[in-house]
Amino acid sequence: MTGSSTGIGAAVAMECAAAGADIVVSCLRSHDDADRVAGSIRAAGRRADVIPVDVSDTASCQAFLKSCRDTGRIDALVNNAGANLLTAAMKDADYFVKLQTLLDVDVRGTLQLSKAFGQHLKEQDRGCVLTIGWDQSDRGMEGDSGELFATAKNAIMGFTRSLALSLAPKVRVNCIAPGWIQTEWGTGASDYWQQRVISETPLRRWGRPQDVASAARFLLSNDAEYITGQVVNVNGGAVR
Question: Residue 202 has what pLDDT?
Fold first, then answer.
């Protein structure tokens, strides 16, 4: 799975390993974090390989698929890699630089890996692809970040529904649309955002990476074998 060195991705990797899966942990830069996640998976008795990938680069994605195939049978792809525009280097970047980054990483990365892995899984006659959207994409949120993420994540959510039709009946394709999940940005968010999250969330708390991981485990499992082409909100019931 991509973007699995920290946050939601790490939680999904650990949850799937706990359910009995062997995991390919992948990142672009956070190699130490990826090694820690892989070490935890191995300590729990499952196999974990660390394979880096730049999801915005076609050659890197092709090499990633080959390396994953070399580890053994592929049963699923989780597309969690995404550009971090809210913290670190991209926080103060120009609006259209941020847009291009999202299109390169989130959209192009999801599309080219899903297409490549999806075809491989179809040839195997079985498999799952899971993408990551955003629960506010189709209802909107004010501000630059809301506009930018809605643009990228709506594209991913629409692509997911279409790819599910393209790969049926052999391969299932679904999307998780997280709401307010307390990852790096949420941990340090201002009082305004802390209060806004609670007021907009009927369950009256931030979501945790583990909440997304539990949904991912279900959608990837045989228990969800009649579910495809769906966008599943994991957002504490938020409707605004």
Answer: 95
